[in-house]
Amino acid sequence: MAESSVETNATPTTRPQARRLKGHKAIATCCIASRDRPGLIASSSEDGCVCWFDMRCKDLLFTMDAAQNPISSLCFKPGNEDIIYISSENEVKVFDVHMLTSWKPLESFNYNKEEINQITCNSKSSFLAAADDGGDIKIIDIRQKCLYKTLRAAHESICSSVQFLPWRPWEVITGGLDSKLIMWDFSKGRPFKVMDLGKSDPESSSSGAQCFNPAFVHAIAVPEVDMLEKLDKICVVARGDGVVDVINIESEFTAAKSKARKTGQTKSNGKSSSQNPETQDQNQRTRLRLDYSCGGHTAAVSCVAFSMFGEKGRYVISGGNDKAVKAWNLSRFSEVDQTTRDNTDILHLNISLSRKVNWLCSTPSDSDNLVVCDTSKVVKVYTVA
Questions:
Q1: Domain range spanning residue 104?
Q2: 137 near 150, Cβ under 8 Å?
Q3: Strand boundaries in 97-226, DSSP class E
Q4: Domain total of the chain
Q5: What are the Cα distances from residue 121, in Å, to 55, 74, 86, 118, 129?
């Protein structure tokens, strides 16, 4: 029986078998792909192990016994992918993959009080961010091996995702189960822009088939430095109500500065603005909403990632609890008129799975370029053309 079915907007195509990567003894939780060595993949599982695969080989390369508890997140050190960071419970461990015999961590950071949901490094390999269940984000100076800053008191619930903004070296963006997307200046340790995705969107389309879960932020993705020439400075958001939001971050940043200036002017002259600041903010926002009406997800979206194959960043890949993985063509993002609702041609590919999606990533390869961790022990690999 076929592992999946693949369809495009037009007509159903072939039903290829997924390549199956076996090695985990428990549910696979996360996966990352090497940029420097195409085809090298690391995936983690609930039993605390990390499995390493090379797409040029048939079998598992090796397994790391990295933690006693489930691993929630993985990331490479940019510029030196022999170093890998692993989060489990409230701890971040650092490993050198060349140390095949002992698997003792080079370093261990225990700054988070609650369970960590995601870790990520900035592009210069100077800071690591760890977002946790308490809503805190720890910024760790990985060169000095110490805590640099704690970001707190903005998320009202679990902080599920964090990403550094590569075009703004002192800023991160976070998302949480309070439905908030927050932009931070981590050098100062405070937020400068809060977007509440749980507020009703007057421009959103209504569909009886769209799920009505809260707009929890389950995952976010931002383009890497070498994608910025082709893409706007955007953030893609995986939401609990089945929506994939594409948000122009620079537009939000400009709106935040404008709102701050107008607030200051109002205080100085003692007059109130005739227009609601939130309305002004909404008018300035550039956002693309990918929902069920344009072929999107019908249940919570659990993960999003930019494509690393072909023209990098051309596609955004999303996976969800509706047992589907979708590839969205964002090459025309700036040309799309959201008010027309004519976004159906943005959906490039739909892959139907047999299980819910935990995580996914893409590789720089022409084939075997989409890696999916679902709620099974087996990691699946597909080809997106």
A1: 5-267+276-382
A2: yes
A3: 107-109, 116-121, 127-132, 137-141, 146-151, 159-164, 171-176, 180-185, 190-196, 217-221
A4: 1
A5: 25, 10, 11, 11, 6
Give 230-276 pLDDT, tens digit per residue. 888 999 999 999 999 999 988 877 766 666 666 656 555 555 443 33
Q: What CA–CA distance (Å, rounded) separates 72 from 62?
A: 20
Kindly give the residue spans of alpha helices, DSSP state H, lying in the chain. 249-269, 277-284
Give yes or no for a contact between 247 and 286, defined as CB atoms under 8 angstroms apart. Answer: yes
Which residue in this structure is represented by tokens 């948000």?
247
Fill in the amino acid letter for 197. L
**Crossing angle of the two packed helices 277-284 and 249-269, in degrees rounded to 10:** 150
Give the CATH number for residue 309.
2.130.10.10
Bridge partners (DSSP) of residue 43 are 31, 51
Q: Which amino acid is at 367?
A: S
Q: Are 194 and 182 in contact (CB under 8 A)?
A: yes
As a whole number of angstroms, the distance between CA 366 and CA 24 comes to 26
The type of residue at 182 is: I
Tokens of 8: 């495009």
Q: Could you tell me the two tokens for 64?
A: 């790391």
Instruction: Write down the pTM of the prediction.
Output: 0.87
Angle at 244 between CA 239 and CA 245, to 5 degrees: 95
Token pair 């696979």 in the structure block, residue: 28
Q: pLDDT (tens digit, 9 = 90+) per residue, 192-227?
A: 999 999 885 544 444 444 556 899 999 999 999 888
Which helix (H) or strand (E) element contains residue 266?
A: helix 249-269
Residue 146: exposed, middle, or buried by beta-carbon count in 10 A (0-12, 13-18, 19+)?
exposed
Q: Are 289 and 245 in contact (CB under 8 A)?
A: yes
